[in-house]
């Protein structure tokens, strides 16, 4: 994505010197915004590339959605105890955690690492993200 951003805005600035339709110079603010947006895209591409590889790293990657959904289920459960609302969301989150845990446990190369990483990722998602 960074290459596309650089080539798009760079080519627009180069062509703007010869063709009036593309005039306006180099748009630094848009270039910076899209460059910053390309960083999460690169991280997501890295995760998706190693997702189904036969590597021990895939056990950690499989644990990320399980941990995130488990953290959400914990937060919804705490909220449910206090306010007696969001029962359906709580049930769907718990069912989703169980389904993801079952599906990804079978696919994970290292089962022990998957379970440990699931607990750690649930704790990280719970404490890092503001609920």
TrEMBL record:
The chain crosses the membrane at residues 7-24, 30-51, 60-80, 86-105, 112-129. Keywords: Membrane, Transmembrane, Transmembrane helix. This is Uncharacterized protein. It comes from Evtepia gabavorous.
């Amino acid at each position: 994505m960074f290459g596309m951003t650089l080539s798009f805005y760079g080519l627009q600035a180069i062509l703007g010197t010869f063709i009036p339709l593309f005039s306006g110079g180099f748009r630094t603010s848009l270039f910076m915004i899209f460059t910053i947006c390309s960083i999460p895209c690169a991280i997501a591409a890295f995760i998706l590339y190693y997702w189904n590889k036969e590597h021990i790293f895939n056990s950690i990657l499989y644990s990320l959605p399980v941990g995130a959904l488990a953290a959400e289920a914990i937060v919804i459960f705490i909220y449910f105890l206090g306010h007696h609302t969001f029962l359906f969301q709580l049930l769907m989150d718990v069912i989703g955690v169980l389904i993801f845990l079952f599906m990804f446990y079978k696919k994970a190369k290292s089962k022990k690492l998957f379970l440990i990483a699931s607990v750690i990722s649930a704790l990280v998602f719970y404490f890092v993200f503001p609920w």
